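Section 3.1: Structural characterization of target chains.
Under the original work plan, the team committed to producing a structural model for every single-chain target entering the pipeline before any wet-lab resources were allocated. The record below documents one such target. The sequence was received from the expression subgroup and is listed exactly as submitted; it comprises 477 residues.
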Amino acid sequence: MTEDRLKEVIQKGEGVEVEFKTSLFKLNKNVFETICAFLNRRGGHLILGVEDSGGIEGVLDDSIQKIIDSIVTSANNPKKLNPPFYLSPNVFQLGGKNVIHLHVPESSQVHQTNGRIYDRNEDGDFDITGQNDLVTQLYIRKQSTYSENNIYPVLTFSDFNQTLFPRIRRLANNERPDHPWMEVNDEELMRLSGLFRTDYQTGTEGYTLAAVLLLGKDEVIRDILPHYKTDAILRKENTDRYDDREDIRTNLIDSYDRLMAFARKHLPDRFYQEGDQRISIRDRIFREVIANCLIHREFTNAYPAKFLIENDKAYTENWNRPHGAGLIDPDRFSPYPKNPVIARFFREIGRVDELGSGVRNTYKYCRIYKKDSKPEFIEKDVFKTIVPIPEITPPTNFQVKVLDQKLGEKLGEKLGENELQIVELIWKDSKISITDMSEKIGISTTAIENNIKKLKKKGIIKRVGPAKGGYWEVLED
């Protein structure tokens, strides 16, 4: 949300998807009634510091952080909002006054606040807790709109990959040392994450499609979704077929790791100093692109998700439930969650940030990855993300000599001629074999292996992946 876009929203006034609250020095008591109603209906914009008429009253400077902390803490507290939902407020200055903006997306689940269920219409937030027909209709609408909520009552806990639970706990703990997943057992973790549901129309209950995709055993995923797969394809020299390919038919946690490894194997990197931290631009971009492709896909459609790398671009494709058509403008778009439960799970383990951040971050880092370039996000039945990639040029002799000099400074010694030639060959071709190195340098494979051991010990190169299918890296540091 940009400042200009926020002004437009305020000028249009309150409605089904817009609510103003004054909140001059504290959070209004009924704010979570609106948040709950937005989650249950179509989502919306909650703007604090604005009067019902649209006048800007503002939020006091020393109250901003207290209000934001209250929103974030309460949204993650199942006693206040159940099921909990990640929210990320932003502060703007309009006419010299502070305004807090909160985009609340539509949720695939029915939410309660303080034990009450709220829905939204033109006139505001309505408590429908005791109105059984309205509550049932709300559950039915959520169930039919989001396929991730499909229930499979015959599934048992034994159908899930038990090795994944320690991993996701470690990842969640890295994000929040006090993460609630650390205090519950594996089955309770799944219920807490919205992966076990009840169909209030039929009374059926069980684990959902989201549970299967995130944590299911591979054979269970294949039985439920026989068509499910993600293709990772490198197509640079052999443009009719491919130079490298991975056929990925596993859970979304491992799928993400394998796609990121494919990106690291075949895409150039550019290191960048952000504040006092050195970051990988490639990883920042494709973390967003790959997660977006996995999270926001319509899994019930047989169209396979794809991650393709070509000479001048990398792009993803996935079947989609579009909320519009055409090229997405990052300054004006409103993000819609296609699979909110899966998206929230990925957010808990640090694989994504708040909704909409993927588009903004990809635009931000693409300009650095390939100078002045822009990604494209195309919303259609097949959602497509296109990222321009920089050309890879082999090092010149001069660059190799500079590398040799830098390595010498680091090691306190010069590399041997054979060592230097090995580094140069790896720099030019990360997938080169020991046999090919032997032929090009003119020494035995045993000699190559001995020199490689020395280079690894000195921290100059490393091997990524297995002997077959892996690749070499010259270490940036």
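The longest strand covers residues 97-104.
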